Structure formats: structure tokens, C-alpha cells
User: Fold these one by one.
Assistant:
Number 1:
Amino acid sequence: MSVLNRAKTDGMGLFFMGFSLPVILLLTLPLIEMAREPTVAMLFNTLKDREVMLAIARSLGFSLSAGLLAFVLGTPLSYLLARRTFPGKKLIEGIIDLPVMIPHPVVGIAILSLAGRTHPFGRFLADMGVQIMGTPTGIITVLLFVGLPFYVNTVKAGFESVPARLENASRTLGAGTWDTFRRITLPLTWRHMVLGIIMCTARAISEFGAIVIVAYHPMTAPVMIYERFTAFGLEYSQPVAVWLIALSLLLFVALRMMSRSAVQYQR
């Protein structure tokens, strides 16, 4: 009987593997082909291009800035959603997920609509010396908008994984709310926070649609890839794309390592 069950299980596994293969090929073949076409000389010559290095550095720097801002602004909201029940909570959770579903050019248009000089808030920002359109501030705002859901949901799951009884016991023993958060909750969830920052950064580094509307310049790597493709074709855009993929791969390797570390720590 066990041999029969094993045979059925193996058969089902082979069936699923057969259907999984086209998906794996769909995800990998285009990237492999793009990485194969540029020669090693072309890739290293691209690294010598100052404009390319500046664009990649901007993408990484702006994305990390968005990730750190997500940490500052998103952590209190994550804790609130994980530990409190209040009217409209489901609506807020839906709003947080909304940037994942909105077409990204719409994100850029929405931000400019709010920050434009014809809007009272836009005039307020202008009076404060804050400019959104065509500035690094605008780019970071866009990247924070699209990356924040990944941080909030990751850290919310981290807070939910901490048993509430540990916090309650800490308060019963005389610790205040802030001391409980600092000594109990934070040490148990900091890995999720780092994971959330990496996820937010990884999502932000690939953003294109909203950036070209809010701030075409200073040019980030995705915008440069698009410009070189439209102006010169595949030969000049592929090497930049390969380096951006390599950078994204490094981020996701870090993501997987942090994810594994968080799971092992919880165990």
C-alpha cells in the first residue's frame, strides 16, 4: 500500500513538474538571452560610462532612501494594524495594498496632481521650498509610494508572529508600553524590519512608469535603459539592463538569506 501511495505521489509530482517547466522557462529564458548577448567587453565598457554608473547609483541610493523612510513611517502603522482593532481597519489595509494594483503611470499622475502648483498642498510645498517634479525628492516620493506596501505587510506579519502574551507579561511585571516594545517586541521583529526594507528597496529599484512622469531627470537606471533603447536599440540598452539585473539579484539573495534567518530565529 505504501509503495502504491508513493507511486501516486511521484506521479502527481511529475505532473506538476511538467506544468511548472513552462513557467520556469518563461521567467528565465528572456533574462538568460538578454544576459548572453552583450559581450564581456561591452559589459565592462558600460561600467566605464560615467552616466551609467551615476544612473545605477541613483537607483540604488533613491531606493535605499525609500526603504529607510518606509522603516520610519511604516513601522508604527504596521504595529497598529497587527495589535489593534478599530473601525476602518480593513479599509486601511486595502488602501495600503492599492499601490500594488494601480498602473504606475497613474501613480505619477496622482502625485503630480497633489503636488502641482494649482493644488493648495502643492502651493504649500512650494512655499516650504519643497519641489516634487523633476527632483530627487519627487523620485523618492514615488519609490516610497510603490514600495511601502511591501514593508508594511512584511513587518505587520512580524509583529503578528510575536505572541501577545509576552507583551502582556512584560506589562504585568511593571514595564511600560515603550519598554515592552524596546525589550520584547523589537528584538523579536527586527529581522522582519530589515527584510521589509530590502523588499521595499528591491521593489523601488525597478520602478519606471511613475518616475518618467514625475521626474525624468535626474535619470535612474530604468529610465536610462528606456532612453537608450528608444534612441539606439538593444545593443546599447542591454548592458545597462544586465547590470541592473545583477544588482537586483544581489538584493534578492540578501532577501532570501534574511527570510531564512528570520524563520530559523522564530523556531
Note: The two ends are 34 Å apart (CA to CA).
Number 2:
Amino acid sequence: MALTGRYCMKCGGRLSHESRPSLCARCRQLNGVGSDHAPNFGPDFWHTDQMRDVFATRDMGEILRAYRYHPTHGHRPLSQETLSRWLGTVTQSQLSRIESGRNKVDTLEKLIHYAQALKMPEDLLWFKFPESFADRNLKPASGVIPLPGGPLVPAASLHLGSELANSLLGTLDRYSATDNLAGPQSLVNIVPEQLRFIDELVATARGKDRVRLLWAGSRYAEFAGWIYQDTGSLHSAMQISSAALDYARESEDASLSSYVLMRRSNIATDAGRPELALKLADEALAESGKLSPRQRAVALRQRAHAHALLGNADACTRALEEAHECAGSEIVDDNDIAQYCTPEYIEMEAAHCWIELGQAQKAIDALQRGLSTWPSEFRRDLGLGLARLAVAYAAGEQVEHSIDVAGHALQIARETGSFRTEKQLARIPSILVAHGATDEARQFDLWVKSLRK
């Protein structure tokens, strides 16, 4: 009778049918899976013909690859993520380049570090450890690199993570400018890739570098959520903004956490979930004492949106009044993430609330004032403002004005691919039908549908 069970590749113990790894839990633990340090596999691991042959190549990349594919690890090779964690000085992508030969490990200090990190036997190595090297800390403890017979050189790489984070944040500013002009389509594949790069950096960063990278990761994830939101991928937007919140909380930045909660609330309003939107907006305002006035304003604006969708006119008005007052405060910190939230911005956002509450003329007045001085670099949001004005005109039975303004919004929507603008324009046909303008509604409905082709 044939055996149909599955057994551990190392100890031969029975595996459960649900177990995907080819090693049992005990052997996986002995193999160091989940640990930050490589286990000591012992002589039987290293002194095989295969390992002797690969050491003879004197190529650390070949050795690392043979190490990962050693039979001791079972059917599946040791992952690059695990090995890079054990090495402690490289990311998974860097390890991939080392194994492929694109990056060479050719300095004595790196060779010794890899040999020590993986506990390689000295008799297999083609280089020698200098006297007392094993007792030395290879990482400069005081921020300097001592050169033999020379001066103490500042360790420029000591805060590389912070420098990379600052560079990435500068790039994010340029992405934001592109988004404001051209919409999300050109960025929808780029920003998530940058976020994956930050994930790799965070995995090995420590101290202040890690905190700064966490902050950058939160900003990129929040922006990726915005990109997904404006392409209509609301589920993806909510998922990745959850990652942004995790980053912000790990960095222990209360104001950044509040901002991400506000953004999640905004996504919830677009998804037609006003109760969730209100809950998230209230969470964003929970620690108001740690927020700048403008951060309070943008969260209050979101609370007003949620109340408008729920039909709570009085609560909406109170939130807007408080937001307008906060937005008028001076900017104290040039790095304030919500410094764009001016009184004019709040007034434009209030128009969205007036539309939801059936107060078309108040919306028209606010939008006309705001659009007359709209900055040219915010073209995508100009389209959204025009779309809201067209909705307000339609609700106010000003059909000709609605069609005229909507035509301009349609053109910008075609150029930017903004889901939010399209969503506003899609409301107009049903409003026109309700006011008896069926021919205009039919024609406009065809225009809106042409955006999706």
C-alpha cells in the first residue's frame, strides 16, 4: 500500500495536509525561519561536495545562492527576504543583484561580514580574518570610520535612510504637481512601486532613519490611496490607506495619523458610506490638541461632508463654520501637511455640502467666487469644481448654464481621467430629467458615457 502522507524533509516527521512548507514547525525553527539571525547549521551543512565546489569559485553571490538552495531548507529554497534579514546589511533587491552577479561582494570587510553573519567555516574561505577582527564591531559606533594610519572620517552612510526618505519626499512633491495638472493615470503604476522600495528600506532601517522612512512610507501610501481613489478603485484606495495608517502609527506621529484617518473618511464618502466617513472623521479629530489649525480644518471639512450625506444640515453647518475659522490661522510650520486648507478651499468644499443638502443657490454662489480665482496648477480640481457647479446649476433649474459649464468639465475630465469629476457629471442627467429637460439629459448622458471609452 502506497504512503500518501507528507513528511518533513529534514526529520521525517508527519506534516498536516494543510501545511504548505516542506519542513515541520520544529525544523523550521531550527532553520531560523522568522529569526533575525542565521542559525548554526553545523559541519554537515557546509562540508558537502556542492558547497566545497561553490566556495572554490570565490564568488560570494554564488555562495549565497547555494546557501539558499541547500537541501536542508526542504523543497522550497530559503527566501531572499529571510537571507537578507539574516545578513542585516542588504535589502532583498540588493541580494538579488548580488546573486545574479550584477553586484559584486569584493571588499574584505563585506566578505568577512557575510561569513560571520552566516557562520561560514573558516577552512572553506579564500580570505583570512585579521587578528581580533571577530571581536570588532564592523559598524561605526560613534559616527566615524577609522582609517589605518589616517584621520577619522565621518560615516556618511550612517543616516542614509533619512537622506533617502528626504529624497523620496521631494519626488513625492513632484508627483503631486503632476497629479494636479494631469490627473492620476500617469502615476497609478509608479507610486506603488516607490512604496515597495520604501518597504524594503524600512525592513532594515533602525533608529531615526527608520522613523523618517516610516513617515515617508505613510505619505506615499496615503498618496497612493489618493491616486486609486481618483481612478475609481475605492477598495484599493481604502486598503493602501490602511497601510498608510500603520506606518503613521508606528512612527508615533499623531498629526500624520489624524491626516490619514481624514483621507480614509474622504474615500468612504466617495464609496457612499457616510456613517463610516463620520466615524473616521471623528477619530481624526480625537486628539485635536496635537493638530495644527489647518489639520483640524481639513478634518472638520470631512466631518461636514459626512453630515451632509446623512442630511444633518445643522451639524454640517457647525462643522463648516469651525473649519473656516481654523483655516484662517497662520501657518506656523512650513511642513504642515494641510497648509493647502485655506478659507477659500473650505468655501469651495462647503459648496459640495450645499449641493447634498439641496441648497443649490448657496452652492452656486460659493463655487462662482472660488472658481474665479482658481490657481492654474490645480487643473484636475478645476474640472471637479466645474462639475460641481454644473450639478448646482442643474439642481437650480438653470439648464443652459449647467450644460455650458459641464462641457468645460467634460474636457478636463477627458484629459485627467478623474473618477471624482466623472462621478459628479454622471449626476446631471437624472437631475435634468427631474426638471423636464429630457432631451438635454439624453444628450449629456451620451457625453458622460464617452468618457469611459
Note: The chain has five domains: 1-30, 31-128, 187-252, 257-357, 371-453.
Number 3:
Amino acid sequence: MEKKIEQGRLYDFYGDLLKPHQKRILEAAVYDDLSLAEIAAEEGISRQGVHDLIRRVTDNLQEYEDSLHMITRYDRITAHAMRLKEMAMEQDGISEQAASTLYSIADDILRDLV
């Protein structure tokens, strides 16, 4: 299951870089949870061909992440924004107005990431 989650995240960030055929097969495997045999029957290719394409496409998407680090940056920005919201709610050593502003800015950052 964890592998499919990672494939889905890679696809979410870099899927637009794939060819339509690659997108269709990876979506069927990851999002529709179809078996290799089901995808092969739909696409008119062998089960092994589907397996190889999914592996190759996933490797390519991982190479994009290894070069561009978009998922890593997204995760880091999200974690920082969540920490800002926590700090604003705690209001340790800051005024209520400053906490409200901090919370609002963090909320805007999180909203922009989606």
C-alpha cells in the first residue's frame, strides 16, 4: 500500500510530464487499483508490458523528484506552516493580534499549496 501512496504522490506532482498512454496506465494501477491483468486487457498489451511500463514510469517520476525535490519542498513548507499555526494557537510570548496574523499567514500558505 505504501508503494501506491508514493506512486500517487509522484504522479500528483509530475504526472503532467507523462505521455497520455503512461498516464492512463499509471492512473489505472494507482487510483483505480486495477490488476495488471485488468489493465493489460483494457490496453491490449501483455501483463508483463503493463508491469514494465509502471516500473519504468515510476522510476522516471522518482528521477524527477530526485532532481527537482518538489515533494520534499512541499512537505517541508507544509510542516513549517503547521508549526506556525501551532505557535499562533499557543500564543507563547506574542500578542493576540500577532498570533492571529501568524495563524492567518500560515493558513494562507497551506491553502496556496493545495
Note: The first helix runs from residue 2 to 14.
